[in-house]
Amino acid sequence: MNRRQFSGLAVALMAATACAPLPNSNPISREVRASLTFASVEVTTTGTAFESTRAADYSSRLSGDLKGTIERELVDRMDGGGVKLVVDIARLNVAGATTTAFGRDRSILQGSARVVDLSGNLLGTYAIQVTAGDAAETTTGALLDAAINSGDGFYRELVTGFARDTREQILGAD
Question: What sections of the chain are H helices per DSSP?
Answer without folding.
Answer: 3-19, 30-35, 53-57, 62-73, 97-101, 139-148, 151-171
